[in-house]
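sanity check this:
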Amino acid sequence: MTNSVNYVITKLGIDQNGQTTHTRFLIKKERMISISYESFENLDEKKKQKIINAGFSVFAKYGYAKASVDEIVKLAGISKGSLFYYFQNKQNFFNYLYDYSMNIMHNAINSPDLNGKPSYLKYTDFFERLNAIQLMKMKANLAHPQMGAFIKKIIFDSSSVAQDAMKNMITKYQDSSIKEFLTGLDLSKFKNGIDPLMVIQLIIWCSEGCVNQVQTQHQASMDLDQAEADFEQVVRLYYRYVELFRKNFYKDEYV
């Protein structure tokens, strides 16, 4: 179900002094009416985590389209009726898991230091901060291995449900994340005429391109081990491109 809502969109920019600028736009678009998962959230934490990990495990193994609700509930130790009572349908459960995992990643990235600010802010170099954030993402995946496998699999999932979930999360976090990322950075290291926001956009496109390239190579594969290998290949390819950007966009004395 959808309804119409007005959104204020902020477009970020960089002025000639290297300061972040904000241009606000009012647009009208459709939004999904939020779904309450109160019954699930009120469950005992141990039972809730068992259901979440069952979902992570099955979706990571098969992807969205081929994931079986029967296998999920068997692994979770609940009835199909209970799962549908908590989430109504398979798609809602998948979306819940994706939101849950992205919130964990977002919290990991923004984990505060002793001053209560995100720890990555101590890095004032653009690429050092970028690498620090990527390292925190990897640590979060290691700390939650089933979630990590789920995220890695979904990146390569071509189903419309998985693709829409990723697009919605980008819409939710991208503008605020970019603004936070730029806070306190030394942008003077970039060559004259290089717009850091364009570099960020290039990096986003690059990461998407790395995924698409690897996905094309193994389009028919649904194997979990292959998904793991694909993800590692994407990471290696991504870092090669980022290093290329650093060497080409930074002034010579900073390379």
